[in-house]
Write a structure and sequence with these properties.
The complex is a heterodimer.
Chain A lengths: L1 H20 L5 H4 L9 H14 L1 H4 L20 H4 L3 H10 L13 H12 L22 E9 L4 E9 L4 E3 L4 E8 L2 E4 L4 E2 L5 E5 L12 E7 L2 H4 L3 E6 L25 H40 L1
Antiparallel strand pairs in A: 1-2, 2-3, 2-7, 4-5, 4-6, 4-8, 8-9
Chain B lengths: L2 H9 L1 H22 L3 H17 L4 E5 L5 E5 L12 H8 L6 E6 L8 H10 L9 E5 L8 E5 L8 H5 L5 E3 L5 E3 L9 H5 L5 E3 L28 E3 L4 H5 L5 H5 L5 E5 L4 E4 L5 E3 H7 L15 E4 L11 H9 L1
Parallel strand pairs in B: 3-13
Antiparallel strand pairs in B: 1-2, 3-10, 4-5, 6-7, 8-9, 10-11, 11-12
The complex binds iron/sulfur cluster (3 copies).
Chain lengths: ~300, ~325
């Protein structure tokens, strides 16, 4: 009886730790499918991306030569990984967890699908399901566009999404949009992603520490989160939404480590004085020598007389 | 127009007209190309030489800097000789308006040493010559050990530069501390002055001495390396000039490095390519700088090794595991 009790307790204790290791993918992301069918071209593109981004940890698929990490990255050709459905693999690659980095800023969604396509080539039992093409029925034949403007009064950026066809322009409601600012090496998100309201409007709060150029200009890029539905339509706009930043050269100040022209004044003065004193002393010695020589001349001419 | 075009033109007067107008159009563009940069002129010249060998037409096809194939009349061609000092001059000057910073997240480093390898590959160093190295750190017996990648800190008050007697090592406006290997006399004062042991000395003939012979010296890459002089981390100044992240930053598989421009208050992770707010990153993680009490004002920040998701493994153990 006691043993049975302990067994039960052990199971009770183990279940949460086991389930904590399980990588849960949100239900709505599980069923996500590629919008294009996998073929040799996508597999090849996927292989290239895999070798650049994934190989260093996961090794060559089918060779089980992944890095010995805890938890192990695993070989993507094995059943453990292949039993994930397409949406689950897509989610895990995009979001990452623990040591597995997130790739959503590195690869576009089409590129991630190419990687999935490559991984599936190691699974003979795999049959691809392609996402039925969305004919965005609400906006047939329309061009979906984004417009952004800056409101300095309350420091917000207002975004308007609309679908324009030949005859009319209707707002795009209930679409998730994000706003990014161009930085040297990437795009910095402004505020959280927002959902457009009935008028197709979304408001982003501009953080106080958003830096612009010398005039405070920033290049803002608006995008739909769900590119599968709305396409990669986006809008890059130059807005006067940032702080004015006047870059200061790091070698502007006078310092010991700066070049000769930028040396501290006291060093230049002290050095100049030092040189003057040294040369002055040498000159003094030379003049004394001359005096001695002249005295010698006088003495020797005296002797002659 | 090349010879081929001319042959075609005799067949059909209409095509002739189109070609003629496109040529005029093209001549207009020549004005723009004429004002293009020196590098553009280099491309033009090499294109000219290529075309010269191929045809005796009155115009030549030329590939411009922005990858457009254009036609240029031969009489407008000029020889171009690059200024031998240009690499040195721009290397001394630095990139205007930038203030580079590096952030190293110690909680993510698991000693993969990919940064070390990438750097050594780019700068033609031997496996035991380092611009960046991963160190095994442990503050006291009761605190856990961790790995610490350590490049040059690109100090804003660099003692190494103060002591150089010949102005061979210097700081630039964007914060990078570089070395001019052609000026360096190998006195090693700077090595002694650097509190971070960031500098290395070429005691022997550099690894790629043979292969790099005759190559133009790039001060932003320290290649070709030179025996009897100093080398150290350059913040990959050559990559920054192209708008790319440093070699070590993009090579890390674990998301340890962030790099960016302090003036923009944003840094980008080399692995995930996510761009984040610099101030927030430093504040939220309790960032610190190495031996800041010395007043060297490093441009490299560290995030403490908290919440680590793996155990410390010594380098040899890990290498052994990777091999087996
Ligand atoms: S070793 Fe070279 S760079 Fe260093 S202090 Fe001497 S001359 Fe300057
Ligand atoms: S870390 Fe050393 S070599 Fe680098 S700038 Fe500072 S003092 Fe100079
Ligand atoms: S920044 Fe460049 S030079 Fe410095 S350690 Fe990294 S790869 Fe090497």
């Amino acid at each position: 009886m006691r043993r049975y009790f302990f067994g039960l307790l052990l199971i009770q204790l183990l279940i949460p730790t086991l389930s904590a290791q399980e990588w849960i993918v949100p239900a709505d992301k599980k069923g996500k499918l590629s919008t294009f069918p996998f073929n040799d071209e996508t597999r090849k593109a996927g292989e290239k991306l895999y070798s650049i981004n994934c190989m260093s940890c996961h090794g060559t698929p089918g060779k089980a030569n992944y890095l010995p990490l805890v938890p192990p990255p695993g070989d993507p050709a094995t059943e453990k990984i292949q039993k994930n459905n397409d949406g689950e693999i897509f989610y895990k690659v995009s979001v990452g967890r623990g040591q597995m980095p997130s790739f959503r800023s590195v690869l576009t969604s089409n590129e991630i699908w190419n990687v999935v396509s490559f991984l599936r080539s190691f699974n003979t039992a795999y049959k691809q399901q392609v996402m039925p093409v969305i004919t965005s029925s609400a906006y047939p034949g329309a061009v979906i566009g984004l417009l952004v403007s800056f409101n300095p009064a309350d420091s917000t950026i207002i975004l308007k999404a609309s679908a324009t066809s030949e005859k009319s322009s209707v707002p795009v409601a209930d679409a998730e949009v994000k706003l990014l600012v161009k930085r040297t090496f990437g795009m910095l998100p402004v505020d959280e992603p927002q959902t457009t309201d009935k008028e197709g409007l979304a408001t982003f709060r501009v953080p106080a520490d958003l830096k612009g150029d010398t005039a405070g200009m920033v290049l803002v890029s608006a995008r739909f989160t769900d590119e599968d539905v709305f396409g990669s339509a986006g809008k890059d706009t130059l807005l006067n939404a940032g702080q004015k930043v006047t870059p200061v050269s790091l070698v502007a100040q006078r310092a010991m480590w700066n070049n000769v022209r930028k040396a501290p004044v006291w060093i230049i003065l002290a050095y100049g004085l030092g040189v003057l004193i040294a040369w002055g002393f040498i000159l003094l010695v030379l003049m004394k020598l001359r005096d001695i020589y002249l005295v010698g001349e006088i003495v020797s001419s005296d002797k002659k007389e | 127009m090349s010879k081929k075009d001319k042959e075609k033109s005799s067949e059909d007067p209409k095509i002739d007209e189109i070609l003629e107008s496109s040529r005029r159009d093209f001549l207009k563009k020549v004005g723009i190309v004429g004002a293009a940069s020196v590098a553009g002129a280099a491309a033009i010249y090499s294109g000219y030489r290529y075309e010269h060998a191929k045809s005796d037409g009155e115009s030549v096809k030329v590939l411009t800097e922005d990858n457009r194939l254009v036609l240029i009349p031969k009489d407008q061609m000029k020889d171009y000789k690059p200024d031998p000092k240009r690499l040195l001059l721009r290397g001394r000057d630095g990139i205007k308006g930038k203030k580079w910073v590096m952030i190293i997240d110690l909680s993510k480093c698991r000693n993969a040493r990919k940064c070390v390898n990438a750097c050594q590959g780019a700068h033609h160093l031997r496996p035991y010559e380092y611009h960046i190295n991963t160190l095994q750190m442990q503050e006291s017996v009761n605190t856990p050990a961790y790995h610490m990648p350590k490049p040059c800190q690109h100090c804003d008050n660099p003692p190494c530069v103060s002591v150089c007697p010949v102005d061979a090592t210097f700081k630039r406006q964007d914060g990078i501390v570089l070395i001019d290997n052609e000026r360096c006399i190998g006195c090693r004062f700077c090595m002694a002055a650097c509190p971070y042991s960031a500098r290395m000395f070429h005691w022997q003939e550099p690894l790629a001495a043979e292969a790099d012979k005759g190559k133009e010296y790039d001060i932003e890459l320290n290649v070709p390396q030179k025996k009897g002089t100093i080398s150290k981390c350059l913040f990959s100044a050559d990559r920054l000039r192209e708008g790319a992240l440093p070699y070590c930053v993009s090579a890390c598989p674990n998301g340890v490095f962030y790099f960016g421009d302090e003036n923009e208050n944003a840094v980008t992770n080399g692995t995930t390519k996510e761009t984040v707010n610099l101030k927030e990153l430093l504040e939220k993680n309790g960032a610190y700088r190495l031996m800041a009490e010395l007043g060297t004002k490093p441009r490299v920040y560290y995030l403490p090794p908290k919440n680590r998701i793996f155990d410390f493994e010594k380098g040899e153990e890990q290498e052994y595991k990777e091999l087996t």
